[in-house]
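hey so i finally got around to running the thing on that chain from the lab meeting. sorry it took forever, my laptop kept dying and i had to restart like 3 times. anyway pasting the input first so we r on the same page abt which one it is
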Amino acid sequence: MSLLKTIDPNPVDMPRESKATPDRLISGDPSFKTWLQDTARDGMINSGVWEATPGETHSIKGTTFEFCHILSGVIELTENGKEPVTYRAGDSFLMKPGFTGVWRTIETVRKIYVTVT
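ok and heres what got predicted. didnt touch it at all, straight out
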């Protein structure tokens, strides 16, 4: 087993598809696709590609740390009590444990993610 993993930004396998849950949905009808490409430490660390269509949802990280690198699209993140921040293709950011705010997908977004719980 190799300890080097390349994340494919354009996976061809079938993604896990989902929708925003009613308690998280603010506006629109966003749908999500997740291509989990690697997992470690008994599922505590996950990485892959995630895609979302336009809409607005509550983002609540709880105990999860998440690194994101935007491959395409445009989003706006607003941490509770803070000013909105816009991210687009080429941008990277972290959401640390305890983050709560609003995730607004302006243009369908695709990102590489790494989560640690």
